[in-house]
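## retry 2 of 3
previous attempt timed out at serialization; input unchanged, resubmitting
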Amino acid sequence: TGVLGQAKLNGIPVIAYDRLLMDTDAVSYYATFDNKAVGTLIGKYIVEKKELEKASRLGKTYTIEFFMGSPDDNNAVFLYSGLMEELKPYLENGTLICKSGLTAFEDTCILRWSQETAKERCEWYLNTYYQEEPLDIACSAFDGFAYGILDACMENGYEKETLPMITGQDAEMAAVKNIADGYQSMTIYKDTRLLASKCVTMVQAVLENAEPEINDMTTYNNRVMTVPSYLCVPVTVDKDNYEEVLIKGGYYTKEQLFQ
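## retry succeeded, writing output
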């Protein structure tokens, strides 16, 4: 924040890229993905694929455990917020059952997005709460967590056909391969080319003394100010659309995924 303060004193605009700069009034603009929407999309996927509205009416239940992002990453907090707006009604009415009781962000966050910690946590859940009945949904905020969850499940006797629904984020190549092969249910795709392009146009506008394109003026408060932002749109990817979105979209080639 000291360096940012110097920039402000010298009239230098500062654009935050992907991660919001916290605790400073010296940030002019923010370019990112809509991180709350990432959580919303994961939540909606669970609601739709598990038909939770119908399950609520029929009294059917599903078990769920949460693997949320790093507590030092502001994006993770927004993801959790969007996710819980979708899932909270089903947790409250008993359609979703979290046997560990750990649903708060501070109880489910995983420091530095550690795959190893996610695996250890999943092993603990399975050994402590799911000896008698299976885990139905592993609600993961990151593809790296999904790998750890998958390893823990396979080592605890799950087979491909009996794996829980495993969610993710980032559309990493390994995750897309797992989705194609039936080991991971979905991921959230954030086209980094789009984010880079939007940031370039933002910089260009600043250089030309014009107003950058902004589509959010309310969401991203860094504890000092609400930062004018441009939010790119994330996309849900699963086995039904990964070829259309990722291969035809030019993000990966078929050879990269299936060589």
